[in-house]
Amino acid sequence: MQKRLGEHEEEVKTLRSFLEVVDSLLAEKSYRRMEVPKLSDGAALLQRQQEEQPGQSIRTMSGVVLADVKVQGRDVRIVPSDKMRFDVNSPPLKSFLLAKVLEPMQARDVEAAHKGELSPDKVLSFNVDQEGTILKEVWVKNYGDERRLNEIRNAVRWTFRRMYEKTIGT
User: Does residue 131 fall inside a structural domain?
Assistant: First the structure.
């Protein structure tokens, strides 16, 4: 019994040493040091990061691409997929995205600009581009901070999913 116990302890030591090697290799290969550019102006760094953000697709739960959300500087462009034909008069678009999300954000910015808390050129504005009644693009200018960008993305995701559900009849 003592002999078997000794063999098992030796095997445990060997396995632990393998585990340490694997852990160190994973740590070495998985994590990369981030190089932070040395800019004296933090706003310039933030601006550059926002300009470089890749587009993000809005999908249904089953993976159907509904639209692309592209952040360009202080603007957000929401472009429906070529395969989607969303009606601009659809209730979630007008009654929720525009009336409950974007218009109140714009009103708050206008009020802040009147009070002198926000520069007039930083006031949120938006444009709905359409061809007939088919939505081509929603362009939000001066979306504000990261919190508002996330709020817009979430509202767009919800809106486009509801619009899609209405088009397929569920």
Answer: yes
